[in-house]
Write a structure and sequence with these properties.
Layout: E1 7-12, H1 20-34, E2 38-42, H2 44-48, H3 62-73, E3 76-82, H4 90-97, E4 114-121, H5 125-140, E5 144-153, H6 168-184
Parallel strand pairs: 1-2, 1-3, 3-4, 4-5
Helix pairs in contact: 1-6
């Protein structure tokens, strides 16, 4: 019997089909997979099925339970958000709010876990503020943002369905995000 591979969970995307944000996230997850990790993507469609987080709810939907269970099992996480009005999307924030379900776990939230960050926006201004917001949220959730975060201007870089991008440097940046979470994940090993 072989031990399961360590898991990297990807969180991000938008409603309405596979977006640039989700394509960027998939490229980073592929890099972690090449380093021997199992990956699980919670893209825009999966995130859209999560109801608005209600801290007083006594029961969680199957989608909420599946999401929280994956993060509990994860050795690392990669979060990708579009830059909406200078910050992260409500869709991504709602998913992160749901991690309150782990508050009383032996390893609460994203404690001691490496977290890769990706921001996409149509222009440069929102990429920086979105990365800053993500770093702040990850710190509040007790996670370790990786040293490198990918900020992608989708006005200049186009993604394709085959998992590529028009700018090879962007591909390298996204692969670096995936490799960094894979490199730091053994430090966060948990029982």
């Amino acid at each position: 019997m072989t031990e399961p591979k360590p898991l990297v969970v990807g969180i991000g995307g938008t409603i309405g089909g596979v977006s640039s944000t989700e394509r960027a996230l998939m490229i980073a997850l592929d890099a972690a997979a090449r380093d021997g990790f199992e990956t699980q993507l919670f893209g825009g469609e999966a995130l859209a099925r999560l109801p608005l987080y209600n801290p007083k709810a006594h029961e969680r939907t199957e989608c909420e339970q599946r999401f929280v269970a994956a993060v509990r099992r994860a050795s690392a996480v990669i979060i990708a958000s579009p830059g909406y009005h200078g910050s992260i999307s409500g869709l991504v924030k709602n998913a992160l709010d749901l991690l309150e379900e782990t508050a009383r776990d032996p390893r609460p939230y994203l404690a001691d876990m490496p977290v890769g960050l990706i921001a996409t926006a149509y222009g440069w201004q929102a990429t920086g503020s979105t990365i800053a917001a993500l770093r702040s949220i990850v710190h509040a959730l007790r996670g370790w943002p990786t040293p490198f975060a990918a900020a992608i201007n989708t006005q200049l870089t186009k993604f394709d369905e085959a998992g590529g991008a028009s700018d090879p440097a962007v591909l390298d940046q996204l692969a670096l995000v995936g490799r960094q979470v894979a490199r730091f994940a053994p430090l966060a090993a948990h029982d």
